[in-house]
Amino acid sequence: MSDFHDAAKNGLNQLQFEAVLRQVGAERYHNLHPFHHQMTQGALTKGQMQAWALNRYCYQSVIPRKDAMILARAEDPAFRAEWRKRIEDHDGADGWNGGIARWLKLATGLGLPAQDVIGERLALPATRFAVGAYLSFCTNRTLLEAVGSSLTELFSPVIIAERVPAMLAKYDYVTEDILAYFKPRPEQASRDSDFALAYVLAHADNPERQQSVIDALVFKCDILWAMLDALKHAYGEAGHIPPGAFRPEERG
Asked: Where does the record place the Thiaminase-2/PQQC domain (predicted)?
């Protein structure tokens, strides 16, 4: 597996640059993680599925906030007009009829109380730290790096295509209605990643900027990987659930 640390040291043309970005996903996206494989194999308990949905809500809920930080730093009105679609996708027209609400429906459909999910207090500390690090990154790094970190959406349709059919086929308590979050996501992710990719290809016009985008995408892949690492550590065979975190046996 590549570390991509010096991938752009000699400069890349646009085709080479895009190829490196796609290779990051091929080697480091979290569809390669053992926890995801367990999910698609039908090997997770309902409690593990609940833990995944509850913890992933923390990530879903921060997406429009990090996108708002990106918007606040963008001077180009055309960029802002395109980027704000992401916030609309997740918040909806009134804050509770978009992607976040659909993820809450997934979590409650798995048997979790809505207030426990929304409150996030039962999420793993590692989840909260990872999500906070992502928000901080998009707030404090350059606009180009923040956009680059969003390029995991290039690979999102792949993991959805693996996850949704497997969940429907292998977990009898999972229904299409519960998984409504995923229905619009491939189209939204393709739209968003096309725009973000075009942006970084146009604006990463020297080796340093190209490397900053590559590093940003690696960082984002690490965030998503770390979240699954934490789930596997806490809810796998070892069962190292930290104090105060969700405990499946307490929810039935």
From this structure: 21-229
